[in-house]
């Protein structure tokens, strides 16, 4: 069986509304992936096990979303050299600024590539993972170029109401 190249993990099932946007992009590009809840806070042993097994399982990128005290991406990155793409999930009280700061302010030496708060960040993390994989996959690169071209045409076709 071919290894799954991208793992999508999130701190809670309540993050799914946001993280489903990453999964949708991966599906759209035909990139095999898995999605599961892994919480550094609530299931630290499982989180360690996931990170420790990631490279040997063939994962090329881990997209990790979390909200509030969002330590999941950073702790995964602490335990694996597989690139971790962090998605700040919008939190109820601080609108995800807490999540963003928790994910982006990593100490030197343990990077987490951090994306925008919310669905756009989740989708962009997946597009970034696709771009990484496309470095070694010409067919995937062609799909990504077609996606961009389509997006450009959609933007060019945008109209505004009369003044
Ligand atoms: N930030 C983390 C971690 C973690 O970083 O390990 N585990 C859960 N959470 C976050 O807690 C928020 C509320 O979770 P619940 O809705 O389950 O109470 C979620 O956004 C989740 O990502």
Helix content: 40-55%
Placed side by side, the strands forming the largest sheet appear as: 2-1-3-4-5
> Per CATH, what is the topology?
Rossmann fold
Report the total helices.
6
Largest sheet: 5 strands, parallel
User: How many DSSP-defined strands?
Assistant: 5
CATH architecture: 3-Layer(aba) Sandwich
End-to-end span in angstroms?
A: 58 Å
- Tell me, what is the CATH class? Alpha Beta
User: What are the distinct ligands in this entry?
Assistant: ligand C2R
**Topology as a string of helices (H) and strands (E):** EHEHEHEHEHH
Write out key terms for the chains shown.
Rossmann fold; binds the ligand Nc1c(C(=O)O)ncn1[C@@H]1O[C@H](COP(=O)(O)O)[C@@H](O)[C@H]1O; 163 residues; 6 helices; globular; alpha/beta; five-stranded parallel sheet
Detailed description of the structure:
This protein is an alpha/beta fold. The chain has a single domain (6-156), classed as Rossmann fold, CATH 3.40.50.1970. The protein has helices at residues 16-28, 44-54, 72-79, 97-104, 119-134, 138-156, and strands at residues 6-10, 33-37, 61-67, 84-89, 113-114. Strands 2-1-3-4-5 form a 5-stranded parallel beta sheet, with helices on both faces. Strand 4, helix 4 (97-104) and strand 5 (113-114) form a beta-alpha-beta unit. Helix 5 (119-134) packs across helix 6. The model has no long low-confidence stretch (mean pLDDT 97). Bound molecules: ligand C2R. The ligand Nc1c(C(=O)O)ncn1[C@@H]1O[C@H](COP(=O)(O)O)[C@@H](O)[C@H]1O binds next to strand 3. It catalyses: 5-carboxyamino-1-(5-phospho-D-ribosyl)imidazole + H(+) = 5-amino-1-(5-phospho-D-ribosyl)imidazole-4-carboxylate. Belongs to the AIR carboxylase family. Class I subfamily. Residues 4-155 form the PurE domain.
